[in-house]
């Protein structure tokens, strides 16, 4: 019994379908990237003891230190904001990570600091 090698042959329609899928994938990735860049918040609002102390654009990379009972090093990079260093007990604010969505916030309770991203918040659900 002999084994025959089966060879797949592409026909013109197969190549057109593959090309269509590749182009559609690239277009989807481009649209997704454009939407991600514009969907984020527009500014970072920094509050200390309930008072607005700074307002910074989210699309401009910067690092600064906020003084108080403790020190918080706040960094904005690549459209995200986070507290990267803090000498407060537990440093829970540092472990909060990076945020980029409107309406999200990071809080440092010992230093009475809140970072909040402004802009149009996305709605998860509505209850009537």
Quick overview of this protein structure:
The chain is an alpha+beta fold and 128 residues long. The chain has helices spanning 12-39, 92-95; strands at residues 43-48, 51-57, 62-66, 72-77, 80-86, 105-108, 113-118.
Q: Whole-number radius of gyration?
A: 24 Å
Average pLDDT for all residues = 85
Taken from the alpha-carbon principal axes, the silhouette is elongated
Contiguous low-pLDDT stretches (5 residues minimum) are none
> Span from first to last CA?
73 Å
Strand order of the largest sheet: 2-1-7-6
Query: Number of helical segments?
Result: 2
Largest sheet: 4 strands, antiparallel
Query: Hey, roughly how much beta strand do the residues contain?
Result: 25-35%
Content-based structural category: alpha+beta
Helix content: 25-40%
Order of helices and strands: HEEEEEHEE
Q: What is the number of strand segments?
A: 7
């Amino acid at each position: 019994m002999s084994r025959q090698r089966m060879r797949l042959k592409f026909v013109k329609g197969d190549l057109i379908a593959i090309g269509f899928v590749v182009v559609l994938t690239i277009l989807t990735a481009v649209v997704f990237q454009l939407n991600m860049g514009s969907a984020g918040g527009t500014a970072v609002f920094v509050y200390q003891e309930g008072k607005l102390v700074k307002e910074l654009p989210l699309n401009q990379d910067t690092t600064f230190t906020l003084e108080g009972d403790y020190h918080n090093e706040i960094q904005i990079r690549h459209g995200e904001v986070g507290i990267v260093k803090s000498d407060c007990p537990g440093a829970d604010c540092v472990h909060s990570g990076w945020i980029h969505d409107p309406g999200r916030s990071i809080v440092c309770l010992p230093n009475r600091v809140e970072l909040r991203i402004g802009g149009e918040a996305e709605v998860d659900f509505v209850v009537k």
